[in-house]
Write a structure and sequence with these properties.
This protein is mostly helical. It contains seven helices and no strands.
């Protein structure tokens, strides 16, 4: 007698799209809910997306998340959605997505941690350089002004490092756990 239940296989491609959609929602909510400055999941999601999705998908989903959350935040707080600073912010996230692609080959814990820390520091350096360039040298002109800009941004780096590590560990560890446990439970 044959078992009438069919063994249903889940489409891994649709699973990745569902996961990416959930990351977008998660990222938007992570920026909208109250949080300390720069403790959002965007860096971790950008790195994670670069490591798990095709390059095209990682860029599409990440920038969808950033643009939607930027629009919602601008509407809520009454500031412009885009400006010259956006070039630095968006290109910074693009670099993080590309860095995530390097985690595809050898995704070790040490390499992931190094990429998270490097992404935090690199994003901070790049975007604060952008603040100094497009801010009309509010911190002063020349090298001294740039140093002043970086010094003023140190508290944001601390928050970013803590947030990126926490969000990154949550994403990468939970994903590893789910991938390890899924076959055991028939997923």
């Amino acid at each position: 007698m044959q078992n009438n239940q069919t063994n249903q296989h889940v489409n891994p491609k649709s699973d990745r799209y569902l996961a990416a959609f959930l990351w977008v929602i998660f990222g938007i909510l992570g920026r909208l809910i109250p949080h300390p400055p720069n403790m959002t999941p965007l860096t971790a999601i950008s790195l994670f997306g670069g490591s798990q999705l095709s390059r095209k998908q990682a860029f599409a989903f990440t920038f969808l998340m950033i643009v939607i959350s930027d629009i919602l935040l601008a509407l809520a707080h009454g500031y412009p959605v885009f400006g010259l600073w956006s070039l630095f912010t968006y290109s910074g996230f693009a670099m993080i997505i590309l860095a995530g692609t390097f985690l595809r080959t050898i995704p070790t814990a040490g390499r992931t941690l190094a990429m998270l820390l490097g992404s935090s520091v690199g994003f901070w350096l790049w975007t604060n350089f952008g603040v100094w360039i497009v801010g009309g040298h509010a911190y002063g002109a020349g090298f001294t002004g740039l140093v002043n800009c970086y010094v003023a941004a140190i508290p944001f780096l601390g928050n970013a490092l803590v947030g990126d590590l926490a969000w990154g560990l949550a994403l990468f560890v939970s994903f590893h756990f789910v991938r390890k446990m899924a076959p055991k439970y028939g997923f």
